[in-house]
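Weekly modeling sync, notes
Attendees: S.R. (lead), two postdocs, one rotation student

Agenda item 3: backlog of single-chain predictions. S.R. asked that every request posted to the team notebook include the full sequence so nobody has to chase files. The rotation student volunteered to paste the first one in as an example of the format we agreed on. Action items at the bottom.

Example entry:
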Amino acid sequence: MSYKSIIVNLAIDAAPAPIVKLGVELAERFGAHLYGLAAADVPPLVATGNGMVYEGEVMQIQRTEIEKRLAELRSEFERLVPASVTSEWGQAVSSPTRFLSVSARAADLIVTGGGDGENVYRAVDIGSLALGTGRPVLVAANNVEHVLAKTVLVAWKDTREARRAIADALPFLAGASEVIVATIDSDRSESVRYSLADVAAYLENHGIMPQIELLTGEADGDRLLAFARSIHADLIVSGAYGHSRLREWAFGGVTRTLIEDNGINRFLSY
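Predicted structure, as returned to the notebook:
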């Protein structure tokens, strides 16, 4: 198993070089075709002295500015991608999350930087992306150009999402020097130990020899991140847990923490 088509998302307000270089490195590693995508949208309302109103002239100015920036990002993408990597470009004046979600049907993996939850018109919503695209999402730490994935922490929980994440992450796990499968269980129940043993056997069948860790304490994201840093993991693989409520995503504690922490690379799958 490998990734043969990778989308790299360029945020309109971020420097493009780090994420493009990361996308190129992954495309070279896996022999993948690279799609560069960028999008931003014009907010439908603007603030005036009389409140929130539609303002056609202001909206057109904003659209023109977005189109100019998208053209700059395309130029940077095409400059940074070497001829040895096959690639193509896509852009839209649209919701970044919606555009990326629709485009995901052409890819095995989505690569993006952390989103800005405060402005969904100019940055991707990581939670909605992870839960809504049907593709794994690699969320890079701030300004990284390489995800070596030499020490990978798999956050295990006996759920469909965690099983899906492990299967989706196999290309990274197969190339890692160390794979640690960890779960947090204060009760140390037999069922948890059995599930860890089954996961280890599954990975061994793929030529991956994992270490198993049963952690005590509260099953929350901070505990998981602390353990990841203690073993110097450079990638966390996790299922994404949440559900839609009134058109907004409500997340479990671990998923929420992983979405918000941009200090480590995260591989999320749903």
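Discussion: group reviewed the output briefly. The two ends are 18 Å apart (CA to CA).
Action items: rotation student to repeat for the remaining queue; S.R. to check formatting next week.
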